[in-house]
Design goal:
2 domains; globular
């Protein structure tokens, strides 16, 4: 039942974003940064890759692995068009959105759910909206099994960067725009965080509309007779 309720929530958010933006903004939810998160990302990103902007929702993200797969797709630069004999021109890379990007975060997202918005901000992909993530990037990879079948765990990895030392652990990732979401909001069917993300991305689209490229005239590749 939980999985069905989650899918219903995601599909409802997708409809809200589509209706509020006139179909111009993609909505992609990632529940974690491992198997299910990759499935969700591919399910929702690729069919909407033609849109002008994107809202990535990582609230309640349970983490898992380093989420560079998502980031690699979100930061893809425009390269070229391909003129087709029939139909519209194609873009390279095809699965890419160069327009404004906003990420939704909250206090329940952690581990890989901390790292994803941290990378999103570090690479300048867009604004973070919501609440500070919970701050857990000290982790355990592998542990010895004891003779009686028990096991012992101890932290054996933590993130650090040359220009900032140890980061995220016990701090989380703060939003650029903090938006509280109360139980009363949810009961009333409202999502103030998503509403703020929609407002922000539409404002960015208004201030920085995507360029409208025009195909040049076809070149003449034959010699004219003298």
């Amino acid at each position: 039942e939980g999985a069905l309720r989650n899918r219903d929530w995601v599909e409802g958010n997708l409809r809200k974003v589509d209706q509020a933006t006139g179909g111009r903004v993609a909505y992609v939810y990632v529940p974690n940064t491992t198997t299910l998160g990759h499935e969700y990302f591919k399910r929702y990103f690729y069919p909407q890759a033609y849109k002008d902007a994107i809202i990535v929702d990582e609230r309640f993200n349970g983490g898992g692995q380093v989420a560079d797969y998502y980031i690699d797709h979100l930061r893809r630069p425009f390269i070229s068009y391909w003129a087709m004999r029939y139909g519209v021109d194609l873009k390279t890379p095809g699965a890419s959105i160069q327009g404004p990007k906003v990420m939704l975060i909250d206090e329940t997202a952690g581990s890989g759910g901390d790292l994803l918005p941290w990378m999103f901000r570090k690479l300048g992909l867009g604004k973070l909206v919501g609440k500070r993530t919970w701050g857990g990037l000290v982790g355990t990879l592998g542990f010895p099994v004891l003779m009686d079948g028990g096991f012992v765990t101890a932290p054996n990895l933590a993130i650090w960067v040359p220009d900032g030392g140890w980061v995220v652990e016990n701090e989380g990732v703060p939003p650029d725009i903090e938006v509280e979401q109360t139980p009363a909001d949810v009961i009333a069917g409202r999502d103030p965080q998503l509403e703020k993300a929609i407002e922000l991305v539409m404002e960015e689209l208004k201030n920085n509309p995507p360029p409208q490229h025009k195909r040049p005239p076809y070149p003449v590749r034959v010699r004219k007779s003298q």
